[in-house]
Fold this protein.
Amino acid sequence: MNNVPEIKIGIVAVSRDCFPASLATNRRKVLVEAYTKKYGAKDIYECPVCIIESEIDMVKALEDVKAHGCNALCVYLGNFGPEISESLLAKHFDGPKMFCAASEESQQDLIDGRGDAFCGMLNASYNLALRNVKAYIPEYPVGTAEECADMIHEFLPVARVAVGLSQLKIISFGPRPLNFLACNAPIKQLYNLGIEIEENSELDLFEAYHKHDNDKRIEAVVQDMASELGNGNTNAGMLPKLAQYELTLCDWIEEHKGYRKYTCIAGKCWPAFQTQFHFVPCYVNSRLTGRGIPVSCEVDIYGALSEYIGTCISNDIVTLLDINNTVPQDMYDEAIKGKFDYKHTDTFMGFHCGNTCSRKVCNPHLDFQRIMARNLPREFTDGTIEGDLQPGEITFYRLQSTADTILRAYMAEGEILPVKTRSFGGIGVFAIHEMGRFYRHVLIEKNFPHHGAVMFGHYAKDLFNALKYIGVNTSEIGYNQPESVRYPSENPFKK
């Protein structure tokens, strides 16, 4: 996915002058060996400069990691560490940074071989706060070489999000559909996150589309679409229009991303879109999302942002769905009850018209948007990619600047069940433990809209770490509480 940053973490070991520098150097070497053995060497660089309470050495280390293309930093306390130099290193490094520390190796070597990094982490965190330097510190940041290697690896998705957002431009085509304030998007918080946004009119998009009439590249895109769809290519006559639209979006990205490296799109898809373009954009949206360029529906700017964050974390395709409808009682009784460990209120259907990448859909096929076709000619609503979503683990989540312009987020891990939906669109039967309470006391209580993003796997731990790092207050991150833990607004009396 060339729309997601590749991370290279520079590992710099630090040493206080009253401790043997060799202790930090040797521990750094063992750490790098442990990381390389388990994860390979692609994501890291071992800085040979060991800081010994010297600002000059700090500058040398900073220049070294920059020269070797590092866009993230791990400050590794091989011993107590020089609190001033190490915090200055973090301050002047332009990119995400983390701190971790070495635990003691053996009871046989607790005199000259004792590093006291357990103590040094406290001073490091204090000095970072004094300098207003934001750093990622793992849940328990002191460990063996193998444990610290795992900590560094867990930092990768956090770093991808931080670097990605710092170089992201969201391109939107609006305005939002009438009577659709659910996707309201106060943009101040986007700027606070370091994101640029370019808001355009759908008239601009319509003009750009017609500038691609008879584009010589259309046929190649049509062939690629046909290859992707295979037996699901049920309306081949639609493909030239969709290919022309795809080229329009791709060219717009290249011409408008400016100084930013990464993009995502908040697209318009109704009500005038169908009557003017004579198709719906869902399939094209799904194809770009499949390449790591998320395209949200209904000008959902924070939906697009959420999708992009999920793409950075999972390094995989994501999707955006409505938290849409309940599972009928007879479907629950027949296909779920007694077969899966979920109450009826743990289940719901996640749906959208057809924007999920074909690689995440069972038997994907080109179709039309049935809801819009209730009021429009059928041929105006062709262009969805439909099918039941593939069963498996998921993380349902969203980041949003809510009506009071506070950054809030939610996340919940669950799964898509292998249950036939008997419905239309891109749709699946979702199951999340305690979803009913989560729905009421997080989604409704905190004023989240109906769109939720989906990562195909369990990534809530990485997502929580990333949101915390980019500045979302942890008190504003909701999750599905277990039955034994009451939400603050939940009535304690059941009857």
In short: The first helix runs from residue 21 to 39. DSSP finds 15 helices and 19 strands in the chain. The mean pLDDT is 93.
